[in-house]
């Protein structure tokens, strides 16, 4: 209000908070002398209106203003001259003045026009108007000349946060779904909200019981019946009732509901204060006021009948499906019993409904009776998806709902039509995703893609971009990165403003995980060029953060990589891609050479997520990484145990080959590497495979073949612009490859090579750790002995023990190795 225009019009229905807001501003402002003019039925005539105005002005401002009121009352000032005389006196008053006209719609049109003229003559005058109907200040001419701002019921409505604050006064705490129900029932209307909270308080008997959501909904509806307006004809009431069922009505929808003259009839409703016109999506729409709409909906069953209610809601949905709020549209479908249309609508608006409006979704679908859920299997699947979207581990209720949905799906015969078939497959995919059965869900996704190709070929596919993005995400959860990369071209044409960022984020990580950094860079550039300011902190940016971390690590920026991952590490419980977070952080730490810290973090992460569902592919990746850490730390027994319990994933096979080389079994390493088809390896894995074969051949004395394999692997890493795979090769193997590879092809690792060729490390004693820190600081042995109060020979003996345990030969190597093992 303080920063608003010179004339502020608060136009909304009764109980919307207009007068409360104006009174609060009048009480709090220090910038104006505020004159409050209450308008009622007694001031409809101009003479009465100006008398009320003169009296209010005189009471606040005194002096000449009081004389005007007396002169006007005595008849010395004609009514026609009142506005001009008041204007001349206000202009000469040195004080900043604000006039507040409460309920100006009760004044005549003539009076309003004269008031507009008065305001135009007094440039410094501030005016605030409350009204239920359009006033003279809202004509195009007045709005332009006087700088008029109109504040409507939408701006006056309570926000969700404000409603939650008000609800704290109740005798018990409302659940998010109950708050969503109240928000939907009241639309944030201040009076409706207060009535609803009063209903809840009454039904709860001051906290002695907790009323059900249906009981609350019925109580709120009953509380607003007193606001039902009177209509002159049954046809007018029938149209108004149909309008009340709709979240908004534009001219085409009005014609569909009530014929060619319906829009004119709706305009008369606006003039009577039953609603207001607003601009939505580039078109004019009528929004019926909340209390009026609630009262009409309460009587809709008697006015229209059940079949007509369904017909109206179906018509409204078809007209508004791409224009209105998704939850408002979902209300149309659920209240109209149009259950088979709910799942397609949910998929069309999947991102918003599943991530940002889950409480609204749960509040709407949660109270549905079991028989209705069992009859239409996609309904419980939608509800289960909402319940499980923000937690990796699905709740028992979500699992039960999925079982209900899956049991009902076969009763709708697959093959009814290609479109129905596609929706049923997508529902099955969603159900499997809720159960975290990612491999099975990915298989269903492949069947769905085949069906979508048929639909696209027939011209009725419609893109299905939300479904295709979810299929791609499912493949990533199942670690089928090759399919994610193949789906890239199919999603390049998505017209959605932000969904391509989500997919490119996933694609960037799929490419980076595969080791193809140039391909990842293309997607990262696309994302970084188009991302909104808040997007990097969103759920959708997970793939972008993972891919960016691998890109930074490949360039040696390990601190930058870890900073990118840090926001994800505290959100593992809500991220389906939690295994990718653990793997990426572990790979970065390994390449950095921080073995001890990386192993601790990996073990802590695996302990935290031990009950989380995980796909077979990611399970194999994490086991392979754990084995790599064990080998690098010299714990060959643990590495052997981990790999024996693992499957035949290419990552596991590479680890087994490295372990065979550690045991000086090059022939066994070659057998492992040759046992998996080349096509099963990702690009970076194929490069590692070539390098390991080179080391094995070299140790078998086949130097020429070894050199060819080394060149092949280094050439592949060069094309991938990715030195990270070199971090997983022992220092001795790196020395061998450096000798075998031509200088033009050789690439140095991104971090310091880890000398993990020796046996398992013995732990240092507490005294040896003190000596090691002193060695790091560069102090002479004699100074260390004096500081620790022992002989020089004792310090020399402890230093030799440190070198032996770390498998090094001098101080500099000891300090470097200790830093790699996070001992300093």
Automatic annotation (TrEMBL):
The keyword Transferase does not apply. SUPFAM superfamilies: C-terminal effector domain of the bipartite response regulators, P-loop containing nucleoside triphosphate hydrolases. Keywords: DNA-binding, Transcription, Transcription regulation. This is HTH luxR-type domain-containing protein. PROSITE patterns: HTH_LUXR_2 (PS50043). It comes from the Bacteria. Pfam families: GerE (PF00196). GO terms for molecular function: DNA binding. It comes from Leucobacter chromiisoli. One of its GO terms (biological process) is regulation of DNA-templated transcription. Residues 757-822 form the HTH luxR-type domain.
């Amino acid at each position: 209000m303080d920063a608003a225009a010179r004339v502020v019009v608060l136009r909304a229905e009764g109980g919307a908070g207009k007068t409360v807001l104006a009174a609060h501003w009048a009480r709090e402002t220090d910038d104006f002398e505020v004159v409050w003019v209450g308008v009622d039925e007694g001031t409809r005539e101009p003479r009465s209106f100006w008398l009320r105005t003169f009296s209010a002005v005189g009471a606040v401002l005194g002096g000449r203003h009081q004389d005007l009121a007396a002169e006007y009352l005595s008849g010395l000032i004609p009514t026609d001259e009142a506005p001009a005389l008041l204007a001349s006196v206000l202009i000469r008053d040195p004080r900043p003045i604000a006039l507040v006209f409460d309920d100006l719609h009760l004044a005549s049109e003539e009076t309003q026009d004269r008031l507009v003229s008065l305001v135009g003559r007094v440039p410094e005058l501030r005016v605030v108007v409350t009204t239920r109907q359009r006033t003279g200040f809202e004509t195009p001419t007045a709005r332009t000349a006087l700088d008029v701002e109109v504040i409507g019921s939408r701006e006056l409505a309570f926000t969700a946060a404000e409603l939650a604050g008000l609800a704290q006064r109740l005798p018990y705490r409302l659940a998010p779904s109950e708050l969503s129900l109240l928000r939907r029932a009241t639309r944030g209307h201040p009076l409706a909200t207060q009535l609803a909270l009063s209903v809840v308080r009454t039904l709860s008997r001051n906290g002695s019981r907790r009323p059900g959501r249906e009981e609350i909904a019925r109580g709120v509806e009953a509380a607003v019946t007193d606001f039902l307006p009177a209509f002159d004809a049954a046809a007018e009431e029938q149209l108004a009732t149909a309008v009340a069922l709709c979240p908004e009505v534009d001219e085409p929808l009005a014609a569909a509901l009530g014929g060619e003259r319906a829009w004119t009839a709706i305009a008369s409703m606006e003039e009577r204060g039953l609603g207001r016109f607003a601009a939505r999506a580039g078109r004019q729409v009528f929004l019926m006021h909340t209390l009026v709409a609630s009262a009409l909906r309460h009587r809709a069953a008697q006015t229209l009948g059940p079949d007509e209610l369904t017909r109206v809601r179906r018509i409204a949905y078809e007209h508004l499906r791409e224009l209105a709020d998704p939850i408002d549209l979902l209300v149309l479908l659920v209240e109209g019993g149009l259950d088979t249309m709910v799942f397609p609508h949910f998929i069309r608006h999947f991102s918003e409904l599943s991530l940002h409006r889950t409480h609204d979704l749960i509040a709407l679908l949660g109270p549905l009776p079991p028989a209705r859920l069992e009859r239409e299997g996609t309904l419980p699947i939608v509800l289960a998806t909402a319940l499980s979207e923000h937690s990796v581990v699905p709740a028992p209720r979500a699992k039960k709902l999925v079982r209900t949905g899956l049991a009902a799906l076969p009763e709708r015969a697959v093959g009814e039509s290609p479109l129905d078939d596609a929706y049923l497959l997508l529902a099955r995919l969603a159900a499997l995703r809720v159960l975290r059965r990612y491999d099975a869900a990915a298989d269903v996704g492949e069947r769905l893609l085949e069906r979508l190709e048929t639909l696209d070929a027939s011209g009725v596919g419609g893109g299905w971009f939300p479904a295709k993005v979810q299929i791609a995400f499912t493949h990533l959860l199942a670690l089928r990165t090759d399919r994610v990369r193949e789906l890239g071209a199919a999603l390049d044409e998505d017209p959605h403003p932000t969904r391509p960022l989500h997919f490119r984020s996933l694609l960037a990580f799929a490419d980076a995980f595969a080791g193809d950094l140039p391909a990842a860079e293309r997607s990262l550039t696309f994302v970084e060029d188009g991302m909104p300011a808040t997007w990097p902190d969103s759920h959708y940016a997970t793939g972008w953060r993972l891919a960016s971390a691998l890109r930074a690590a490949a360039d040696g920026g390990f601190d930058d990589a870890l900073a990118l991952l840090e926001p994800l590490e505290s959100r593992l419980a809500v991220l389906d891609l939690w295994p990718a977070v653990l793997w990426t952080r572990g790979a970065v730490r390994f390449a950095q050479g921080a073995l001890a810290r990386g192993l601790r973090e990996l073990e802590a992460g695996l302990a935290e997520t031990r009950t989380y569902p995980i796909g077979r592919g990611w399970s194999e990746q994490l086991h392979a990484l754990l084995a790599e850490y064990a080998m690098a730390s010299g714990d060959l027994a643990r590495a052997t145990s981990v790999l024996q319990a693992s499957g035949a994933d290419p990552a596991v096979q590479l680890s087994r080959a490295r372990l065979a080389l550690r045991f000086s079994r090059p022939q066994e390493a070659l057998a492992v590497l040759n046992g998996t088809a080349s096509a099963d390896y990702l690009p970076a894995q194929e490069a590692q495979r070539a390098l390991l074969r080179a080391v094995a051949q070299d140790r078998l004395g086949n130097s020429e073949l070894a050199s060819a394999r080394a060149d092949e692997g280094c050439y592949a890493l060069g094309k991938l612009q990715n030195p990270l795979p070199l971090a997983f090769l022992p220092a001795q193997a790196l020395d061998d490859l450096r000798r075998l590879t031509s200088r033009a092809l050789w690439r140095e690792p991104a971090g310091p090579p880890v000398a993990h060729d020796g046996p398992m490390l013995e732990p240092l004693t507490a005294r040896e750790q003190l000596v090691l820190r002193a060695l790091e600081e560069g102090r002479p042995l004699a100074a260390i002995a004096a500081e620790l109060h022992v002989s020089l020979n004792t310090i020399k003996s402890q230093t030799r023990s440190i070198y032996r345990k770390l498998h090094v030969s001098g101080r500099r190597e000891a300090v470097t190795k200790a830093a790699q093992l996070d001992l300093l």
